[in-house]
């Protein structure tokens, strides 16, 4: 299926600064179908383009991004599956993906309740087709033909739990679902949300290796919520416009393995040592902040759905051939001596085109980097051993 959607040019007032974010001002696009114009609310506006490697050449990247955006068009519609679509994250995420003009078909898969979610979302007057699938027997139909598979299936944390406490249940769920991906849509990009991401990404990779379908460019742990939170907290603290702030977050996705590089914040911001310490610790514990506030009713769902929709859209924009799409993601990496690590990744028609370096980091950030490595190594090894049946 193919569609042509021309983006509305952004206003000159907002273009120069926000051009870093490849589409944040584009809230509406129009699509002409059978001589009828349908206005679509677009959830584009998420992916940020940052300068490669050192993140220091921001100005030139901004110019490239502005140029590419003004001519952006959607030339393809993609089939996307959400596995765990009836859950706390799955439902709002599915809604956001239903609103995305790059999606032509949205397959909602879960072990229960997807027919209802699909019927509900099917009444949205956005062009994509929605289908609901329940249980193992329907996994094949859900996955066949997918370009992108997003996995939020599994149990969430309760107060007092770490993400690693979820391993016993979620590791098996991710393994089984990835075996399905290897069989039914081996070329799809896989966005893994299920925690502990630091272990579930290596599990997915091992499943694909065993099936002979592993492509490191297509297995991505979703750490976007850490970036979204960092951007929000910094903007709030410094009184900046939310849409202008970009903080790269590297490492992994659990506690101290989450390392925001506040020194590389865009726009350039001065922080006191106390502010850096407080922000770093808050960002590392932000998930727990939500878990405690929900008091047993789960972990972040709405902010996670927003973050996953941004990540999913960035992947689709890359597949669609757009230039300058970057997201931080936990991927197979040679940036450090760890086999998986999150840094900014350049996305393209084949998934991750380039895993960027971490750029110049401060002594403070380097201290955290050394602290996080043993924990992250342990989580990665735990995932690899689980996949090997050890
Ligand atoms: N990466 C992140 O930043 C991040 C943030 C928040 C939560 N999470 C993780 O996302 C996961 C989901 O969280 P939630 O709040 O949506 O949980 P939830 O319990 O509300 O939803 C999970 C859904 O997964 C489904 N499910 C369970 N087993 C399945 C299987 N084998 N196949 C398909 N679906 C299955 C359940 O039926 C349920 O609908 C958790 O692991 C949570 O820790 C990740």
TrEMBL record:
<dbReference type="InterPro" id="IPR001236">
    <property type="entry name" value="Lactate/malate_DH_N"/>
</dbReference>
<comment type="similarity">
    <text>Belongs to the LDH/MDH superfamily. MDH type 1 family.</text>
</comment>
<dbReference type="Pfam" id="PF02866">
    <property type="entry name" value="Ldh_1_C"/>
</dbReference>
<dbReference type="GO" id="GO:0006108">
    <property type="term" value="P:malate metabolic process"/>
</dbReference>
<dbReference type="InterPro" id="IPR010097">
    <property type="entry name" value="Malate_DH_type1"/>
</dbReference>
<comment type="subunit">
    <text>Homodimer.</text>
</comment>
<dbReference type="InterPro" id="IPR001252">
    <property type="entry name" value="Malate_DH_AS"/>
</dbReference>
<dbReference type="Pfam" id="PF00056">
    <property type="entry name" value="Ldh_1_N"/>
</dbReference>
<dbReference type="GO" id="GO:0006099">
    <property type="term" value="P:tricarboxylic acid cycle"/>
</dbReference>
<keyword id="KW-0520">NAD</keyword>
<keyword id="KW-0560">Oxidoreductase</keyword>
<dbReference type="GO" id="GO:0005737">
    <property type="term" value="C:cytoplasm"/>
</dbReference>
<dbReference type="InterPro" id="IPR015955">
    <property type="entry name" value="Lactate_DH/Glyco_Ohase_4_C"/>
</dbReference>
<dbReference type="InterPro" id="IPR022383">
    <property type="entry name" value="Lactate/malate_DH_C"/>
</dbReference>
<keyword id="KW-0816">Tricarboxylic acid cycle</keyword>
<feature type="domain" description="Lactate/malate dehydrogenase C-terminal">
    <location>
        <begin position="223"/>
        <end position="386"/>
    </location>
</feature>
<protein>
    <recommendedName>
        <fullName>Malate dehydrogenase</fullName>
        <ecNumber>1.1.1.37</ecNumber>
    </recommendedName>
</protein>
<feature type="domain" description="Lactate/malate dehydrogenase N-terminal">
    <location>
        <begin position="79"/>
        <end position="221"/>
    </location>
</feature>
<dbReference type="InterPro" id="IPR036291">
    <property type="entry name" value="NAD(P)-bd_dom_sf"/>
</dbReference>
<dbReference type="GO" id="GO:0030060">
    <property type="term" value="F:L-malate dehydrogenase (NAD+) activity"/>
</dbReference>
